Amino acid sequence: MRPDVLQLYRFYESPLGQVTAHLLGQQMRRFWPDVSGQHLVGIGYALPYLDTLMDVGADAYALMPAGQGVIHWPSTAGSRSALIENHHLPIADSTVDRVLLAHEIEHANRPAHLLREVWRILAPGGEVIVLVPNRRRIWSALESTPFGFGQPYSRGQLYRLMNDHMLPPDRWATALMLPPMGRLGLPRLVAWAEKPMRVLSRSMGGALLVRARKQVYGALPVGGLRRPVPAMAVPS
């Protein structure tokens, strides 16, 4: 079971959801300090983070899986969102600079196939950030947030999966150090406690982020690489 697009939208519109987007967005900006002019695709429900990245110049698009549903995005301009099948992305080979997987891989029936598609559409040297629930933290056990659904991952599990598909991780972080607290005023405590608790342990956060770069030498990803006829190219 995965949250539908309206559940995700309502969470990120709530005070706790806005704090969540802010804290995770900070980590993404550390991973990607300069995305100006780059083609960026968010897969899953990445809208709160794509908003931040578009504000600093990214040419961003949102692809939302059929099992989740799609909404118009961005709200102030023509639509850059599309409903897709995540095992057959409608994008030509090697045309995307950055991919953000958010609220997606933990719900994928075939995560290996999804990562093969990510590898296919990334340009040589392109990068992906994967955002998943941290297996060892309470956020993955509570269904009051989107991180309580799907298959959570430990860092070791996610590293092995990505390495198997020629996406070797080179950086990781966690965020959301305190348990999810939605009462009035408590989301501010979640934000305030983030930095001092990270000093104690960088692995404590309820959400795990891993960055990887497309590897373009050596063997093909496990299971081979499908080469479909391109359906849509990201505009240059």
Automatic annotation (TrEMBL):
Residues 87-130 form the Methyltransferase type domain. One of its GO terms (molecular function) is S-adenosylmethionine-dependent methyltransferase activity. The keyword Metal-binding does not apply. Keywords: Methyltransferase, Transferase. InterPro entries: Methyltransf_11 (IPR013216), SAM-dependent_MTases_sf (IPR029063). One of its GO terms (biological process) is methylation. The keyword Cytoplasm does not apply. It comes from the Bacteria. This is Methyltransferase family protein.
